[in-house]
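[09:14] KT: can someone run the structure on this one? pasting the chain below
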Amino acid sequence: MISENEKQHHLDNCIYKTSCKGFDEPYQGKVRDVYALNEKMLGIVVTDRISAFDHVMKEAIPFKGQILNLLSKFQFNAVSDILPNHVIDVPHQNVMIAKKCDPIPVEVVIRGYLTGHAWREYKAGKRSLCGASLPAGMKEHQEFPEPIITPATKAKEGHDEDISPQEIIKKGIVDESLWKDIESKAFTLFERGTEIANKQGLLLVDTKYEFGLYNDELTLIDEVHTTDSSRYFYKEGYEGRLEAGESQKQLSKEFLREWLMEKGFKGDEGQTPPTLPDSFRWSVYKRYKELYEVLTGQQFHPVSTVDFNDELSHIFSRYK
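[09:31] RB: done, structure tokens below
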């Protein structure tokens, strides 16, 4: 059992922002700090930042970066026969060395169930999402007859915007033949992710994929089938909860979104996210830890993040 002092130490030593001597300032995404190591390689630090509604919270979650990075490593390995991915090495639980790809500016979202954003749109009366038809008479959390694809354009600031595959091709965002390949690979990835989850008593509800080109070859980048990119339900009791109209027991960031909405925050313009209390931050860590252990069948053992920036300099210098 962890003591309150140890817990507070971990809460106080989250990796929120990184810096690395001898390297240019990183590109800072919502969760990742990305360093250019050389012309072909990136050093990606998965921080403990957490985002919701396209806003990064002011507080971080202990060891979230390590869990995401290790889960990504596990899941990239599990789908490596479907298409190449950007992983070169994982020299530290917070760090991934990756191929420098040309990113494709579309988030490819596959949905197997009417949940989250799709349900909010459906409840508002919409029966089409990103060009995909939504059957009439569905309940929240109900499985679609077949998974649907609902892409979004990647916004540098603010909210990503829904877009249909037809618009992606028409606007010249992605060439038609490349898009067909992306679409095909995304559905195959979702099928594999579903199989992995099922074996562990989970349902892969929806997920987001990001792709890039490396030497003109389609490559899976960012992360895959993690808690930040995916939503999972527990399979046991799913049908009963669906019939009773109850909330599903899930492992995802949706509980964070729900907590924020209870506090009146929906990411609207001008809104500031509420402060995440330490007790809630710790409960989020435990959710992430649970998903990692359930999905991988392995225990999570955190490593210390004290003096992490000094350690980072030593790690990156090996790849410069």
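[09:33] KT: thanks! Residues 67 and 301 are 9 Å apart (CA to CA).
[09:34] RB: yep, looked fine to me
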